[in-house]
Specification:
By secondary structure, this protein is of the alpha+beta class. The protein has 11 helices and 10 strands. Helix 8 packs across helix 9.
Length: 280
């Protein structure tokens, strides 16, 4: 089903000041101009988790470009930490509000072992509690985006809970994201087992896998900026062993070769890539 997306973005910096550290953005998404052909839009891992409040028709997700692999998504849902690419197949009249949590920040709003949600799509109320249904019902009856944002802010602020271990995780996550090409920290290497437990429980990934995803994100940024003349140069700049290693890892996380990914030209992919630009 071929479509374009109308996306209205509200960055986290424009939200309630209590939420700015944790929310990357809220987007208001509408699928328009749908045709009868199924259209697979690739989504790549980016270290973030997402709450999707579905206010329109069901749409489909898939782990591969195969019509036999489709998962119909009818209700509001939570998308856990992704370790591999997946695909969205839009439907006519799809309408949703998506809340993207910055890397390592979901744990400030939900309790429990987040490894249980890795690479899964889960009913939103199972993650955010029964009061989420009340929020969903009110949002469906509210036409004003400004008021919808206020309702979401109020809901998230009531869920926000900060404590030492969560802040420790966020410190290490930020060190990986904003540490340039330094994917490994000394502290993680010296106490890796403890860091592994911390990351798995509060993020849903091991430190090593998280670092590799961020390395891949950085490589995808370099690739789509088209500042380098060859894949070998991109691989070197992103700190891969060689071009073959780079291509293998890139395909593992995107489902595409670097050249195939660079050739993709759809608005949703560009939108997700722009999010990655803003993380570095």
């Amino acid at each position: 089903m071929r479509s374009d997306f109308n996306c209205s973005i509200l960055t986290g910096q424009k939200l309630d000041e209590r939420l700015r550290k944790y929310i990357h953005h809220i987007s208001f998404d509408d699928a328009v101009n749908c045709s009868e052909d199924r259209y697979f839009l690739p989504l790549i891992p980016d270290g973030m988790s997402e709450l999707v409040i579905n206010l329109g028709r069901p749409y489909f997700r898939a782990k591969k470009q195969d019509v036999t692999d489709l998962q119909e998504v009818k209700i509001s849902h939570f998308v856990g930490f992704k370790t591999a690419n997946n695909f969205v197949i839009p439907a006519a009249d799809a309408k949703a509000i998506s809340i993207r949590f910055k890397p390592g920040c979901l744990c400030f709003f939900v309790e429990g072992n987040l490894a249980e949600f890795t690479d899964k799509i889960v009913d939103a109320d199972l993650v955010f509690g029964k009061d989420f249904k009340e929020l969903e019902a009110v949002l469906a009856q509210t036409s004003s985006k400004k008021m919808q944002v206020k309702l979401i802010e109020r809901f998230l602020c009531a869920k926000l809970a900060v404590h030492t271990k969560k802040m420790e995780l966020l410190h290490h996550v930020n060190a990986i994201y904003y540490g340039g090409k330094s994917w490994k920290s000394e502290k993680m290497q010296s106490d890796y087992k403890r860091m592994e437990r911390l990351f798995k429980y509060y993020l849903g990934s091991t430190p090593k896998n998280f670092q590799q995803i961020i390395q891949f994100n950085y490589a995808s940024k370099l690739l789509t900026e088209k500042k380098f003349r060859s894949l070998t140069e991109v691989a070197h700049e992103a700190d891969y062993y060689d071009q073959a290693h780079f291509i293998k890892k890139f395909r593992a996380y995107s489902g595409l070769t670097p050249k195939e990914y660079a050739a993709v030209d759809v608005r949703l992919v560009q939108f997700n890539q722009q999010i990655i630009y803003n993380l570095f």
